[in-house]
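Supplementary Note 3. Input sequence used for the single-chain structure prediction.
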Amino acid sequence: MNQLSLTIDQQAVKALPGTSILEAATAAGIVIPTLCFHNSLKETGSCWMCIVEIKGKNRFVPACDTPVSEGMVIETGNDALNDMRCQTLERIIEEHSGDCMGPCEITCPAGCDIPGFVAAIAGSNDERAIEIIKQTIPLPGILGRVCSAPCEDECRRHGVDQPVSICALKRYAADKESEQAHRFIPEISPKTGKKVAIVGSGPAGLTAAWFLLCNGHEVTIFEACAQAGGMMRYGIPRFRLPVAVIESDIATLIDMGLEFRFNTTFGKDVTLEALQRTYDAVFLAIGAQKAAAMNITGEDESGVTTGIEFLRKAASGDQSHPGSQVVVTGGGNTAIDAARTALRLGASTVTILYRRSRKEMPANASEIQEALAEGITLIEWAGPTAIRAMNGALEITAITMQPGAVDASGRRTPVPVEGSEFTITANTIISAIGQQIDQSVAHAAGTGAGKYGELLVNPETLQSETVWLFAGGDCVTGTDTAIRAVEQGKRAAYAINLFLHGEKVAAPKVLFNSSYGARDEAPQAFYQRKKPAARVAVPELPPSERTRSFSEVVTGYTEALAREEAARCLQCKCKAINDCRLRELASRYLPVQAAQKHEHPGFYKAENAGISMEREKCVDCGICVRMIEENDGKVDIVVMTESCPTGALSVPAVIQR
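The predicted structure, written as discrete structure tokens, is reproduced below.
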């Protein structure tokens, strides 16, 4: 049979008579978007996504059921076609409901596939769990202990009872891996010959190193201290984060080829100009390790120290007995860590002064609770005003505060209550009201600096005006969480990799994401898939044993407990997210976030066709109708929830992936 000649997107194409435009284009390597096409079913052109223009005839036709003809000239993409596809997608999305990604995954700054690794643990596949985690979080042992867990705040399990212990499950997977003889090493691309220098070995620097090594680049980290880890090693006490855990996470990076240069201070022992001569790109991840001043009389007295210095000495084994009475000012994790450390170093009483309420303290809620359980006293609405030395001890004066007007942070500004001063005697006073960026860093980097010394870079790419210089983490964002620093390191590595390959430096494209809405806004049928089950408590040392040593307080899940807790996950994430045509097309034509709310009538599955049906995810493809028709109605439909109305399949109800 003679083949027909036609032109598709200015490309000469041959096809047999009776071949559809879609088939001819596909055979020629030309992609035409479609939602309704299915190899096993007759084409109908119902979705109208595969529309193309037949030139010279002013005709727009569906490519899937329009046969080719001799001399046909076809265009598959132009402004008119794209506008029509946008209109089609907008109509579908308007009625589409469901989660592409789970709210936990969206909330995680690093974008961790939380439903994926939790499902792996529930399925007794711990090796797969750690592989999934390390796709986005290369420091799982560390983050499994110190992450602020914003993901748990948005967990849809709130709609049933309590959120899943995501952070504790991450730790479980990491601890299980550390028990094995061999760690998971990600696939590493062929060597590029490019070299990257990273300054700082905190979470941002280590994360950037991980992803750059994966891309085949050589990476060297310059660290001012004698060991790697940054504030994770020198600012977080051992009862929260043991050294062995830090070493375990870093050991994988060393196995991947990471090199360290310790005791090397940026701007002193090594300059930016020296790094430029040897390396193709530089990433500054120095952090914010300068303590903020209280700006009160007497804070320079002997016996007054900063939380950062106190914790650094304790981590190095240099901190002496702080005396029987210790006062800590501040409400962040550093303040809580310093207070709990003081107890373990021998203090009899430890008091924390915070100028707002407990619920407004930036420290992790679990850490605050543990501090109180250990006997630490918290005085809320108390602002320090002066310190003075007296008879070999110290006296700190504070004034009672009350909430005033709402400030820029959305919180009410603490206002002093006149005549409410009180004093506390102490042997040691620890100031932990915040951390700042050392402004000498910006000078050494030769970059501009913001009001608080933060390095000025493109917030999307973390690239500075000097194209080979990037910066991220606390030295850019200001003091933030470890998981945010991981996100910054990951973002920097993505941009640096583009730069090293000579490509345009840009942020990763944000894909379309459908959502039921906030954590409690999914349809009731969704929540009813799981019976209420209490959150499995994470084992801890009893309070009476905690302050006797620096042994880790939280001992972690056993295998049985981890499986039980992982089984509580509602698995919000769509299982077809990686090959969903609707998401792919919406990301291409509608680069927006959508959160349409519709009542969910139920879940169905066509057993002999392998197709999952959910009415509110209908894309007008007609596949379910054609499937039933072509199987003479012999399709076994199983109702997955009791709340589904009878006869729900009278309306097309399938989402074709």
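The chain has five domains: 4-77, 103-182+523-566, 195-288+437-500, 291-435, 599-657. Residues 599-657 form one domain.
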